Amino acid sequence: MPDERPPIIYKKENKAGRKRQIRRLILIIIVLCIIQLIASREYILTALGRYLIYQEPPQKVDVITILGNWGDTIVRARGGATLYNKGFAKKIFLPIMEKMEGLEEIKKLGISFPENKDLVITVLEGLGIPRSAIETSTKEVTSTRDEAQEVRNVIEKKGYKSIILVTSKYHSRRAFLILRDAVKGNAQIISVPSTYDSYNPEGWWKREKDWKRVILEYQKLLLYYLRKIFS
Predict the structure, then answer these.
(1) Order of strands across the sheet with 92-97?
(2) What is the model's pLDDT at position 73?
(3) Domains in the chain with CATH codes
């Protein structure tokens, strides 16, 4: 009777050989993908940087709203002032940022320290905006979602039907999405991020300040989309 063991061994070896070939193929594909990513890294990074910016052509509206941020106070205020001075609106609305921790204690010590609202108003007035044209929220805000709610409140109170949204470039897409959700179609939102913002989508990874902003903004965008999915 012929011995059947050699063919069995052959089949095992053939199967092991195929597995090695598959592993090599997968490794080659991974290496090629990595090479492609490295070769296209600037294109990919630039696309990521550009996605955060949502910009539309400005047009005449009922009110310009400037979103708050301590680090970008001047940048955002100048963007809003330029639009006002070009005649795109007759009113500017400012959601009031939450007071800095320890501010009241400092004031009790006789030390004068401005709130974010005061800084924005100072810049706006210095750029020719009359105080009578500047409106502020009555409630302090701690997030973009809070700011959007205050904008919705002023829309309902004043009957505004169109708004120019002014914020930093890297913040503009998420801010637009949140504000659009808040107003629920009761007003037209036009996103016009400040032209004075130095954020550069074509080289954001070269500046520590910008790559920190981009990473944080994508984390917040992910949270926004997750809330949309599970709410």
Answers:
(1) 134-141, 92-97, 63-66, 162-166, 188-191
(2) 93
(3) 53-198 (3.40.50.620)
